[in-house]
Amino acid sequence: MFSLFLVTPLKLMLLGLIAILGITIVRYSWVAFSGESERGRFLRALLMTITAVVLVIISNHLLLFWAAWVSVSLCLHRLILFYPERPRAQLAAHKKFLLARLSELLLAAAFIALYSQFHTATISEIVHRASESSGSVQLTIAALLLTMVALIKCAQLPVHGWLIQVVEAPTPVSALLHAGIVNLGGILLLFFSPVLAASPVACWFLVILAGLSTTITGLVSTTRISIKVKLAWSTSSQMGLMLVEIGLGLYEMALLHLFAHSFYKSFSFLNSGNTVNHYLAAKLAGSVKPRVRHWVLALAAALVMIGIAQWQFAMMTSLAATVLIWFALSALILPSVCRWDAGSLPRIAITLAFAAGLLTLYTTAKHHLSTLVGMDAPLNLYADSFVALLFFSLFALSIALQYWPHISWVKRLFIWLNAGAYLDEWATRLTLKFWPSESLIKLQNAQWQQVKTEAK
């Protein structure tokens, strides 16, 4: 009986994250739905979803893990359709429902392959044996299936559309989904990391698909105006980045990314109502658009800081991770060097001190998390170089979109990105062609009849 559940230091950290997010979102929902007659129904569905996520985390049996995984999706479906009269919510729920059933079938197949390989349904025993065994056909199949499940759960291209359209659901649902539930794909791979590490094919599959998705969705988010839609595309990009880190074997970096993204996205969605105030404050502050020379200064300063940190602590083992941190620090330093006035030197000094503090915090957290996670995998230099090239491409294309929008190929790129690479349109057509939703069709027909009646 006790083998059905297991709490490790890693799982304890995740449970703490779930508790903080759950309490915050439930309290926000209690206030936000104070005037709703269906507040009780919403809160019950919300609590059931959080409970199912907790059960996924502590499960130590393949069947129990799978049942909890299915329960999360079914409970989330009720939250997405809290306002069933919204066509986009219906469409998002329909596509999410079909993709969830597909991912559950793939997860069941992966678990069957693992059971046939190790002849046990206890997850801790499977993970222990996988870390000591060489890659076999069944283990490779299981790793590939787990990778596909994670890609679907993390809303990677081309099955990302439901995540973008689910912004039709209430704000607490978006916060719970983007800050927690989409992370389950990464959590799944972290729990079964020895299985993934035993299959180089699965690692390459994950790095290529998630890397391309990270690059494209990151660029698409720069073309969006709606705050919630922009955040949704950003979530898809960030989840892809987390999967890339797992594919490279940078498990402690992926875990740090998971925690930072969860707190950031929950705050961003719950605080999205203050966006107008933030925009007006930025306009009053008189922001200056950075030029190329400002980027050069910021990149140079960030590179010097990383060089000093590497000299003192030798913390950078991955080229892709180094490039990512370099660009992140440059973006942080950039606003302080854009405007030269009497307060420039103090402003730059404060920014550099803050950047140094973040770099120190990252180094410390990475060191302690690597000890806590207790998982290690050799770094694939070719995959690492491929991801670093993707990061350079993402940076270069975003600069081109910002500074040279009049060039013909940049215009065509912007149109393609603004359309979301047309991938979701094709996915929606195929979905409604082969699995039409009767409720969605009836709702659309009723709205069309209402429009014709009002026109008369």
UniProtKB/TrEMBL annotation:
InterPro entries: ND/Mrp_TM, NU5C-like, Transporter_DabB
Keywords per UniProt: Cell membrane, Membrane, Transmembrane, Transmembrane helix, Transport
Main location: membrane
Subcellular location field: Cell membrane; Endomembrane system; Membrane
Cellular component GO terms, alphabetical: endomembrane system; plasma membrane
Alphabetical list of Pfam families matching this protein: Proton_antipo_M
Family recorded in the similarity comment: Belongs to the inorganic carbon transporter (TC 9.A.2) DabB family.
NCBIfam families from the UniProt entry: PRK08168.1
PANTHER family: INORGANIC CARBON TRANSPORTER SUBUNIT DABB-RELATED, NADH-UBIQUINONE OXIDOREDUCTASE CHAIN 5
Subunit-structure text: Forms a complex with DabA.
Name of protein: Probable inorganic carbon transporter subunit DabB
Gene: dabB
